[in-house]
Amino acid sequence: MGHEETDRGAPRGSRPGFDSAGIELPRDRLSVFFPLLQRGVEVLADLGGPLKELLCGQFGIDEEYVTGRITTIFLDNRPVDDLERTLIHEGARVTLSAAMPGLVGATMRRSGFYAAFRQGISHEEEGGELQAGEGVIRLKLFNLLLPELGPLILGRGVILHPEQVEVLRNRLAGGSDIPAAPAGVAGDSRRVLLKVTCTG
Amino acid sequence: MDKIARIDMGAAGGPKVTVGPLGEYAGLGGRAMTSLVVAAEVHPLAHPLGAENKLVISPGLLSGTTGSMTGRLSVGCKSPLTGTIKESNAGGQAAQVLARLGYAAVILEGKPAGDDLYKVVIDKDGIRVIADNSMRLMDNYPLVAKLRGEYGDKVAYMTIGTAGERKLLAASIACTDPELRPTRHCGRGGVGAVMGAKGVKAIILDDAGMKMRPPVDPDKYRDANRKFVEGLKKHPVTGEGLPAYGTNVLTNVLNEAGGYPTRNFRSGQFENASDLSGETQAELEIKRGGSATHGCHRGCVIQCSGIYNDKDGNYVTKQPEYETVWSHGGHCGISNLDTVAKLDYMDDNIGVDTIEMGVTIGVAMDAGLAEFGDDAGAIRLMEEVGKGTPLGRVLGCGASVTGKVFGVERVAVVKDQALPAYDPRAIQGIGVTYATTTQGADHTAGYAIATNILKVGGDVDPLKTEGQIELSRNLQIATAAIDSTGMCLFIAFAILDQPETFQALLDMLGGFHGITMTGDDVVALGKKVLLAERDFNTRAGFTKHHDRLPRFFYNEPIAPHNQTFMMKDEELDEVFNF
Predict the structure, then answer these.
(1) Residues of B in contact with A114 (CB under 8 A)
(2) A195 vs chain B: nearest CA distance in angstroms?
């Protein structure tokens, strides 16, 4: 388990740094992170580009998977239809979900047959200059995407606030084979960039 | 299914059973049967709890066969909650067993002169109506346990709890699941109160000695069913999402969209929604030795239900559905799944609609009877319903009555039926359906999302906003048709995306009945049902002015989108122009 200082995540010096840590976790124990991923975690991202570039280029998710599996996407609580034209900004809240049941599930689908039902809340890109460079966005994963994309996102690293680390430590405490969270982190007022390596 | 049984509960000398041919109702099942019988035979101005009303119980067109997903049972009447025509359906074993016994419908008519309680026993030898006052004031779980002692475990039970016996307007009719738990409910519209008014406490369905209904073309039917099942299993919603998480998988998504009505429709987001989510619920169920994957009837391949245990591994209730978790959860500011599960059990046991009761408790919280987020307070209010106290009777009559009694302005009902778990200010299109459906606010009235395949009303551009009226109309037509087949509505997801699965469904219907069915036939059936329902409501005194949402949806913007319901009245009035 590593534990080091880094200033990654700061937009070229303007953002405070955070500790960096890494843990290894068996794949079947990765679910301890799912509540956090449901509520949303911060991740590093290159800003100003389209959502599709974030998913495929930066996260490295296969394009076919994005098209066929991630059928419901929200940006800042607004359902997204066009991945090419939707741009990522500092502090963007990106939520990814697989296909949902029900009329409303179908309504929320990207470019779905019932998209008209969500008149007024669908995302419409306003254009304009967006801040470029590295920044922090908030990412949520729902349902089938938790086990499927969780390892990828956690392996890339998630930024945790002290209270999130504390929650995680409590959940980790149940497994004797799971390493404890970095010593001293919970009491640290700074954030932690945690990378989780899946084993097994 | 070549006969209809009529049971005159008010006949001189005691209940009288008459079994006859289908006559003008030949070829009908499910909602088509219940609605066309009610529309033709019930006086539209009849008192819903009086002798003139009828309770029509009908399995679907394919119920009782080897086909998958065919186990929905429809119950219809004039609703005591809404005053409109009502069809309410449920899973469980009842539809399969009743269909195998050969009944396309069982109709409870009249009203007994005395206050005796009856049980109706239906088996291969016929129908017997037996007075049994030992059932009085029993709730569903103990009642079914008592009946199992008499009739065993190889039957299906339909029962009402104390709410139905007291004729409360939110009362449901319970159908037992494969484990003989009274967990599947015809919930909406107070159908349990109508059964209570007929003096019928329990219906025992015993298909011993009966066989599966045989198709006219067995090879075609078997092949179509195989393709249908393959389609369901390969689709990500019916083959993965629903089996893994159940319908409660919607909590996170609705909350993210800002369409999750919170604290009696004050906000579109609940800060603790993830504590209630299907993902969290499934993990908890598995950890406690329950199950996140379970079918409500034999022959279900989607398995969207589950078993919810307490922390010690003891059964509490079946997996609460999304609408239940919402109504008792975020709508009341409650974020504890154990509390929601307990309330779900109480709903099932007392015999009330989970949506109506959850919304009612939220209204009661608005009135100051408990604080939002008060778990114990919510349970206490439900206990009042179970005890039948004066307060409990008010609450058990639903959100509209409770709002009037306590002077609450923000009461989310249409035609006096509580809105389900999707805020129409965030999802405008579902507001169109809530406002205009023949059933009162009901998300399942426009649920059959396969309208693109059905080509109901032609193509609509999904990304243009003006298509919402057409989409709602098409959805309502398609749903009325699917409700008549006895198929679970959740098949709609696979049908939406996979034309070959829709064709398999048509081939199942065609193979079973020896006919060729097309999408046009399905659409024609849906229109026929809807128009009959609409006509009944018109004769009952309903006008276009009843097809509206409560004013606060037009006047109070909801966070996070700060949007009101924007559909114009003239647009809503176009829905039934077909």
Answers:
(1) 429, 449, 462, 471
(2) 23
Measured CA distances, B232 to B215, B282, B452, B490 (Å)? 21, 21, 18, 9
Angle in degrees, 0-180, between the axes of helices B354-366 and B398-406, rounded to the nearest 10: 10
pTM comes to 0.94
Determine the residue of chain B that is closest to A38 in CA distance. Answer: B274
- For residue B142, is the peptide bond before it cis, meaning its omega torsion is within 30 degrees of 0? no
**Chain B environment of A95 (Cβ under 8 Å):** 256
Confidence label for B515 from pLDDT (cuts 50, 70 and 90): confident
B207-222 residues labelled b (16+ CB within 10 A) or e (exposed): beeeeebebebeebbe
Look at the alpha carbons of B181, B183, B186, B192 in this order and tell me if their dihedral is positive or negative: positive
Measured between CB atoms, which of A72, A116, A144 is closest to B244? A144
Q: Residue A29 corresponds to which amino acid?
A: R
Does A188 score more than 70 pLDDT?
no
CA of residue B369 relative to chain centroid, distance: 28
Residue in B22, B31, B3 with CA at minimum distance from that of residue B485: B31
Strands B85-90 and A72-75, how do they pair?
A: unpaired
Contact A77 B254 (CB under 8 A): no
With beta carbons under 8 A apart, name residues in chain B contacting A94: none
CA B392/CA B414 separation, integer angstroms? 22
Contact B384, B361 (CB under 8 A): no
Domain extents for chain A? 3-199
Extract the runs of DSSP E, i.e. beta strands, from B218-304: 291-294
Distance in angstroms (rounded) separating the CA atoms of residues A152 and B234: 25
* Residue A157 sits at the chain B interface (C-beta within 8 Å): no
Whether the CB-CB separation of B236 and A148 falls below 8 Å is answered with no
Q: Write down all domains in chain B, each with its CATH number in brackets.
A: 3-205 (3.60.9.10), 247-418 (1.10.569.10), 428-572 (1.10.599.10)
Place of tokens 């993830």: B274
Instruction: Say whether A101 and B241 touch across the interface (CB within 8 A).
Output: yes
Option in B242, B257, B258 nearest A101 (CB) = B242
State the Cα–Cα distance between residues B508 and B358, nearest whole angstrom. 38
Question: Facing residues of B171 across strands?
Answer: B352
A87 close to A97: Cβ distance less than 8 angstroms: no
Q: What is the pLDDT of residues B338-370, one digit of tens each?
A: 999 999 999 999 999 999 999 999 999 999 999
